[in-house]
Design a protein that fits this description.
This protein is α+β, with helices and mostly antiparallel strands and 166 residues long. It is built from three helices and seven strands; from the N terminus they run βαββββββαα.
């Protein structure tokens, strides 16, 4: 997801270019607008992709759709007409226009799609998860563990019963 912005950097602030992004994992579709600013290029991007994750209940790997959007300024490092170095950015983590006047938005797309990720992704909304006793994946079937809720007032008696049977 690289763009040559050398011609855009020669234009006045406000000039723009619009591109449709080619699908490439994890990106399914997207569009980007590049707008010339006094210090570089404003990248406005909207996209949709698929993130690979593990279910927070059953730990099964799965992919789920995510939408993201961002506006980021890519700071110019070199004047395109003279080749002179531009003043460095005040931000140490700023995205930069490469010395060959290209912009690579791959890292920005990765960061913003990760930020749009769910905190506790589920493979399906009604995922029963793993059995807390034996660890069996309850999506595959029921286990033989007794998972009936125990009244805490009877816990000592239940422990005594288990020890006498064992």
């Amino acid at each position: 997801m690289q763009f040559n912005v050398s011609q855009l950097l020669r234009e006045r602030p406000g000039a723009s270019r619009h591109y449709v992004l080619d699908p490439q994992p994890p990106l399914l579709r997207g569009a980007v607008t590049l707008i010339r600013t006094p210090d570089g290029v404003l990248v406005q991007c909207e996209g949709a992709g698929v993130l690979e994750s593990s279910c927070s209940r059953c730990l099964a790997p799965f992919g789920y759709p995510v939408d993201f959007a961002f506006d980021e300024i890519f700071v110019q490092q070199v004047d395109v007409t003279t080749g002179a170095a531009m003043p460095p950015s005040d931000e140490p983590d700023a995205f930069l226009v490469a010395l060959n006047h290209t912009i690579d938005i791959t890292e920005a797309v990765r960061q913003y799609s990760e930020m749009a990720a769910e905190m506790q992704p589920l493979c399906r909304p009604d995922c029963p998860g793993l059995c807390p006793e034996c660890g069996m994946d309850l999506n595959l079937g029921d286990c033989r563990c007794d998972r009936a809720p125990i009244d805490s007032r009877w816990a000592a008696l239940a422990a005594l019963k288990r020890s006498s049977n064992g």
